[in-house]
Amino acid sequence: MKRKYLLLFVLSLPLFLSSCTVVYKSTGDVLLGYAEDHGVPYMLASNDVALGCSMAEAFTPFLSSFSRVTAPPDQLAVLFYLVAGNCIEAEAQEQELRYLRAIYAKNSTEAQDARIAQQRLLEIAAHRQLTGYYSLVAAQTEPGGECPEFDSDNTELFWLFGLLNGIQAILNDIASGGNIEVPLDIAAKVGRGAACLDNEKWWGVPAAIQSAIWIVIPGNNSAGSNPRSNLQQSLEIGAQQGMSVSHVLAAQVYLGQGEITEVKQIIRSYASLSKQAADNQE
What we know:
α4 (108-139) runs antiparallel to α5. The chain has 2 domains: 49-63 and 72-186; 198-282, no CATH class. The protein has 10 helices and no strands. It has helices at residues 2-45, 49-64, 74-104, 108-139, 153-176, 185-194, 205-216, 227-240, 245-256, 260-281.
């Protein structure tokens, strides 16, 4: 009798496992569809940065795990890795402030510890953003070649997110000491990929990406172009449309170049823009 039940169990096991796979797949499809249709718009519309960070860092591995049972959520991964990387950048900035306080207090041990912590966090940020860039490659195509045929504004937006992943991965890898070894040829690919987007439509960000690349890695710009002037124009376009993405990118670039006066001016402009946005919401 025991052998009979054992044989029945063995014969039914494949059917049971296959039914679990079907359940996992359908569950994954539903959750990924919900995340793209409702979760992402909600996160982008929120002005609570901490909650956005919590959502991105918690859901990124969870949603990515469904690639084991259904189509990989590469397009969603582009955004989630971008946000998760930016969240780590914010932690790195706190460590930089700790470093400056230690320098002011003439505490060399504390300053060294803060600088090491900052570089480690920037290393994590660069790794996440590089993963987001490669997710764009998997979801659409490798930037730098022919422009893809965008079937919607949403597809263009995720293309823009992927390009931001690429340029920020390079910037943070340089700032962390180059431990991730982000391929520098990504810069040229991202620059050409930015030309696939309408600069006015997307808040001046495509031109800001190109200008950032030309400033950080000289020699990539076309003859006769002025990357700093182009970057300033991108800031003005973003300000006119109430979008500050170019401001954040410009601040990163000038901070990396050690141009503190420019960084302060961008922060003032960003603060004014943020106040206007808050007043408009009220």
